Amino acid sequence: MSVPHEDSPRRSQGSLRKGLLVYNPTAGQRDRRGQMEELAAKLKDRGLDVIHAPTGGPGHAARIVRSHLPEGLDVVAVCGGDGTISEAASGLAGSDTPLAILPGGTSNVLVRELAIPLDLGKAADLVFEGVPRPVRMLAANERPFLLWAGVGLDARIMGNMLPTLKRWFGRSGIFVTVAREFFRYEFPRLEVTVDGQVHEATFAVVCHATRYAGDWIIAPEASLQSDEMDVVLFSGRGRWKFFKLFRQIQLGKSGHLLQGIAKTVRGRSVMIRSLESYPVEVQVDGDCVLQTPITCRVAADSVSILVPRSRDREPGTLEVQPRGVRG
């Protein structure tokens, strides 16, 4: 597959004729159908006809994209959270058709990671003005993903969260479940094998992105374009130390690594299994869909995502500078 480099010439507006608009109709605490109708009308005014394709459940976005690709799409636009975006991207893997991301989730981690505007209108301009950037796909037990696979607490939070709380209260609704699951967490023993080297943990996150849960910095040296993954390992069993882990990730200065609360190990192949008598939940790009044992790898295919030409970040986003903090 040939994926254009992000510094390749800007595509002309007139060259775009046919597109696909995939969206989660209930993403981000609102009904987005009317908003997507309005967006489609604006795209048509600029010469781009888009096929409306609301998703109906887990895995639907990937199937929608694959079904329409043979029609000769110039661009695929996706509006939703990180899970929906990841699914749409997996449907495009191996294709030269670019993906335009329209922020519509609660945390919008991939949007922040790629410096895509959080404003929907400005993000939509990238359909015409963005430059393609190749992003490597990953797989957990052959399920494609882009950002991370978390084993333990975060997966339980996403798996046990009431959708109505998230829809009504956004991030505040998530933290209701966070508090409940944090005090229930029993620190299950995990065996994590990275490129043949065995490590112990009670919580692990396989990362391909620096950010986590919004603008929190979990793996400062991870890269969406890398053919390796950074695995963040926490091996403690104390609740206070566990709290400090998330607090330092939230502060975004790599304190969880510099203070030895956790460590990162980099590799191309990651296997995680439970040492308990039961499997442990696994979240992939924010969706709790798997359980241990899992094997993670970087896939051969990339997806081309449209990003701003300028590398300047939006006001309020964090710069990721710390180096040399791997365990």
How does this model look, in words?
This protein is α+β, with helices and mostly antiparallel strands and 327 residues long. The protein is built from ten helices and 18 strands. It has helices spanning 33-45, 60-68, 82-92, 109-113, 120-129, 153-160, 163-169, 171-184, 239-251, 255-258, and strands at 18-23, 49-54, 75-80, 99-103, 131-140, 143-145, 148-151, 190-194, 197-201, 203-207, 211-212, 216-217, 229-234, 263-267, 269-274, 281-284, 287-291, 294-307. A six-stranded antiparallel β-sheet has the order 6-5-18-15-8-9. The protein has a six-stranded antiparallel β-sheet with strand order 14-13-10-7-16-17. A hairpin with a 2-residue loop joins strand 16 (281-284) and strand 17. The two termini are 35 Å apart.
Notable features of this structure?
327 residues, six-stranded antiparallel sheet, 10 helices, 30% strand
